Amino acid sequence: MDLKKLKDQLQTEVDTAFLYDSIAAIQSDDNLSRVLLSLGEIEKGHAKHMFDKVLTLEPNYKMPSPSGRAKFQLKLGKIFGYSSIISNLSSIEKQFAVNSIKNKLKSGEKPTGFEHNHLNIIEAVNNNAALNVSGGLLSKFESRHKSVGGNALRAAVLGSNDGLVSNMSLVMGVAGAAVSNDTILLTGIAGLLAGAISMALGEWLSVQSSRELNQRQIDLETEELEASPEEEKKELVLLYQAKGMNAVEAQKLADKAFENPQTAIDAIITEELGIDKEELGGSAWEAATASFVLFAIGAIIPLYPFMFLDGKNAILLSVGSSVIGLFGIGAAITLLTGKSILFSGFRQVSFGLVAAAVTYGIGSLIGVSLAG
């Protein structure tokens, strides 16, 4: 057995249990709190099982505490919304299910069909409108980010990264040609605006298309409900069962939903399509504005030194600021990928510096060629 791999799996189980317990503690809905606490207890059992395996290879090993990354992720939940953490836990449970099935097939054991139960439960929690937490400040943040969705952190990281890397490459390319500060500033500002506008337009089209697709799906489900209501009810019962309910509870809930056509279509839209009828995919204009701002924030980092310095001093400060920004973005990405902060941070710095060096070299060659 690979000891490092076992320790990594153990840390993942410990972190997952910690996040389940922490989110359960701030729930205003008792039922959801019980579900999350139950999932946390199961993960603790998995952690104990994994810990026993580690002890067979390293007898003096101590049960690890929740990692700094998990604690930091919980703090960020207060800003970006706890749905981002639930989405991440959903990804972890999905990987657990895939690994469980692979291991069973490899050992000749037949999958039971229950490997995805945790995933179904946490996804049901993720889509549950009752996932509310207490606290005035948090409620404001939740409502602000609700239409952006649980991937607000991902959008923030990637948007800033695009702006920083693209404008750093552009600025370094022009600086390499040894042009004046005014030219570098003009080029950098043009790159910032062009990139931010392009990103905003792309995000607007993406969200607007999603809204239109969701509306089309709602229209189709409404037509199906009118044509065959009993078949739609059967589908809803099966879906509830897939999310962890027993057959009796699932049937009762479906019967209640189908007491009138409006509650029936609302249940189908929420449960089958996973669509919030009030938002239909979020605000296209809000998404576009956020994309514009995030790209611009990243793009200003390599550009601002040229506003008050020139020559090598400006270039060095630009590179230094960009390195710090790239490392921070790489560190933030670990909240999505689970990789080491140092590894991800320095990898991001390396990629950014390579891109800048290439464009600076090309700019230098062009500058020499034009001067000649």
Automatic annotation (TrEMBL):
UniProt record, GO biological process: intracellular manganese ion homeostasis
Keywords: Membrane, Transmembrane, Transmembrane helix
Gene Ontology molecular function: manganese ion transmembrane transporter activity
Matching InterPro entries: Ccc1_fam
Annotated localization: Endomembrane system
GO CC terms: endomembrane system
Membrane topology recorded in Swiss-Prot or TrEMBL: Multi-pass membrane protein
Segments crossing the lipid bilayer: 184-207, 287-308, 314-337, 349-371
Coarse class of the protein's main subcellular location: membrane
PANTHER family reported for this sequence: FE(2+)/MN(2+) TRANSPORTER PCL1 (PTHR31851)
Protein name according to UniProt: Rubrerythrin family protein
